[in-house]
Amino acid sequence: MKSIGRCRAHTNIALIKYWGKRNEELFLPMNSSLSLTLDAFYTDTEVTLDSTLDSDVFFLDNVKQGDKETAKITNFLNLFRNRANIETKACIKSYNHVPTAAGLASSASAFSALAGATNQATGLNLDLKTLSTLARQGSGSATRSIYGGFVEWFMGESDLSESSFAIPVDDATWDIGMIVIAVNTGRKKLSSRVGMKQTIDTSPFYSSWVETATKDIEKIKKAISEKDFITLGEITESNGMKMHATMLGAFPPISYWEPDSVKAIQKVKEIRDMGLPCYVTMDAGPNVKVLCKRSDMIEIENKLLEDFTRDQIIPSSVGEGIKLLS
Ligand code: 2P0
């Protein structure tokens, strides 16, 4: 007996960041976060439950994955199998659609697409809120990729898994875009998971980070509701910098930056000083993301091309939430 599910999920970039778990097993975050889903980067995943299989098999971009990678997927599928009261093993085929230069292969789109495909294959018919709660337990940021546009991930209460999920805040169809400046696309040396824990355990700035991120969420939601792009950008840039400052305070210090990250940040500031509103944010890697108005994107790209190559500049409009594929 075979049963198939297919789903697409886009990646998301946090404007108010998630950087630390209060419960590592359940992926419960220290603070709420808020993101923008991007159209240009996505994962397509097919899950086939197959009663003839003895164990799960996982292919990423047509390459069969080893025991360690497959075990992560198995643990995640078990969340669904337990609910459906089945033990059937699965063949999982995932395809990352990320421009090769972007270096943005993302666990957010991966676990969100896997949640959607497994929901269909198991016939569980879970609602999006429940899928967001489950996607979180594959990778924290995946909880937000269930939805398109601006998305808030609630930190939830104490150790209650069901209380921490994402909701759509705004479809972001009001002149919003993002440009990725790909600085270095190699694999990062320190995973987010390890970096987060090291920051919580050793950075003296951590409690202030959580306090100010919580205030930033309220401010950015107000800016979104008022379609106030300048305030949106200012809070985004400030919050990202605060996250990186908090990491620098860790022992040993954590920095994902490279010389070209600084060059990109300075270039964006120069473009902004010329009168084009645009703001940077960075994640657990050296690449720089530029939040801008969609209508200004070509002009900003042209300015960035003065200092970076064409394949380093990847524009994206706003992405949608998960969708089933035929
Ligand atoms: C974010 N990042 O909010 C933050 C900002 C990176 C910097 O979520 O351990 O892959 O799987 O929950 O989601 C990257 O971390 O970490 C991330 P896990 P995840 O987007």
TrEMBL record:
<dbReference type="InterPro" id="IPR005935">
    <property type="entry name" value="Mev_decarb"/>
</dbReference>
<dbReference type="Pfam" id="PF18376">
    <property type="entry name" value="MDD_C"/>
</dbReference>
<dbReference type="GO" id="GO:0005524">
    <property type="term" value="F:ATP binding"/>
</dbReference>
<dbReference type="GO" id="GO:0005829">
    <property type="term" value="C:cytosol"/>
</dbReference>
<comment type="similarity">
    <text>Belongs to the diphosphomevalonate decarboxylase family.</text>
</comment>
<dbReference type="InterPro" id="IPR036554">
    <property type="entry name" value="GHMP_kinase_C_sf"/>
</dbReference>
<keyword id="KW-0547">Nucleotide-binding</keyword>
<feature type="domain" description="Mvd1 C-terminal">
    <location>
        <begin position="179"/>
        <end position="313"/>
    </location>
</feature>
<dbReference type="InterPro" id="IPR014721">
    <property type="entry name" value="Ribsml_uS5_D2-typ_fold_subgr"/>
</dbReference>
<dbReference type="GO" id="GO:0019287">
    <property type="term" value="P:isopentenyl diphosphate biosynthetic process, mevalonate pathway"/>
</dbReference>
<dbReference type="InterPro" id="IPR053859">
    <property type="entry name" value="MVD-like_N"/>
</dbReference>
<dbReference type="InterPro" id="IPR041431">
    <property type="entry name" value="Mvd1_C"/>
</dbReference>
<dbReference type="Pfam" id="PF22700">
    <property type="entry name" value="MVD-like_N"/>
</dbReference>
<keyword id="KW-0444">Lipid biosynthesis</keyword>
<dbReference type="InterPro" id="IPR029765">
    <property type="entry name" value="Mev_diP_decarb"/>
</dbReference>
<keyword id="KW-0456">Lyase</keyword>
<keyword id="KW-0067">ATP-binding</keyword>
<dbReference type="InterPro" id="IPR020568">
    <property type="entry name" value="Ribosomal_Su5_D2-typ_SF"/>
</dbReference>
<protein>
    <recommendedName>
        <fullName>diphosphomevalonate decarboxylase</fullName>
        <ecNumber>4.1.1.33</ecNumber>
    </recommendedName>
</protein>
<feature type="domain" description="Diphosphomevalonate decarboxylase-like N-terminal">
    <location>
        <begin position="9"/>
        <end position="165"/>
    </location>
</feature>
<dbReference type="GO" id="GO:0004163">
    <property type="term" value="F:diphosphomevalonate decarboxylase activity"/>
</dbReference>
<keyword id="KW-0443">Lipid metabolism</keyword>
